[in-house]
Design goal:
Oligomer: single chain
Helix content: under 10%
Number of helices: 1
Order of helices and strands: HEEEEEEEEEE
Radius of gyration: 22 Å
């Protein structure tokens, strides 16, 4: 009985006052661009908005954060000159953490020798 009284007095957990509720949490949406030619730019969109211009290979991040349980869909809004870029891992639902695995892979277009 003494053990039960001790457990009840402890309250079972700790102070969660510094934790925000899930509905107010926000998360980053980011990834990496590779294969883009030097001096070129690509425009990426999330959910057909939040246009983000990338001017070099490497890491990128959208400026608008994702809400808790959000849906995201990364697409190419404008291709670099002479290249075609594709998106991998660019869609998701039910976001509960930062998303950092979006991949953009660019390849040069074939030149027709006519």
């Amino acid at each position: 009985m003494a053990a039960l009284a001790f457990l009840v007095a402890c309250g079972g957990g700790g102070d969660n006052s510094d934790m925000s509720s899930p509905s107010t949490q926000e998360f980053t949406l980011s990834g990496m661009v590779s294969g883009m030619n030097e001096g070129e730019e690509i425009t990426l969109n999330n959910n057909a908005s939040n246009a983000t211009v990338i001017s070099a290979n490497g890491n990128f991040s959208f400026t608008t954060l994702l809400a808790y349980n959000a849906t995201y869909a990364v697409t190419v809004g404008a291709q670099p000159n002479g290249q075609n870029c594709t998106v991998s891992y660019g869609n998701g639902i039910g976001v509960i953490a930062d998303v950092d695995n979006v991949r953009i892979n660019c390849r040069s277009l074939a030149i027709d020798n006519v």
